[in-house]
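Comment thread on ticket #2218

A.B. wrote:
> Attaching the input chain for the structure job we discussed in standup.
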Amino acid sequence: MQSPVNPCALSPANTNYLTVSTMDKQTALFETIKSDPKPSVAQEPLCIFVDGAARGNPGPAGAGIFIQQAKKTVLAEGLFLGKKTNNQAEYLALLLALLFINKLCKDKKLAPAPLRIFSDSELLVKQMNGIYQVKNEQLKALKGLIVEQLKGHKATFAHVFREQNTQADALANVGVDERKKVPASFVKTLADYALHL
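C.D. wrote:
> Ran it. Output below, let me know if you need it in another format.
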């Protein structure tokens, strides 16, 4: 049996990046810009794998975040989200990944780079790509904040199977089991948008 292909290793020449501009905190307009198929070393994409897990749906939930660049691990975090639905956990995992990236960039610990975001939640990916509408009010609020955090980034969203997302999946369960708290500064950012863990 062959090992699953690393989705971050796939780099088709016609990959499209989505850039985000906001009309307000809840609405996003996605514009398509073709990527450079041969990025420079400094522009090696950040490969972001996210997963959310809820035991009970709703129930105790965790977020798993695994980020690589040039095959090196940038971040591996499993965080506790409190009582959430599975879809809320998926969105929060993505949001927290972006908060981490923006903090690392702000602190000059990470250079800006294209974002390749992978999730095994087909719903999340299709909603972020504008294929499905977001009808749930809480998910709308989370998507609005995600859009805010994507400002200035070139990003793609792609669906992967669970076996291609094993690190983030495991980290999400660690978040539930170990109850590691979300950083206080991130909790404050969420609270500013009336979002609470």
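A.B. wrote:
> Thanks. Noting for the ticket: The first helix runs from residue 86 to 106.
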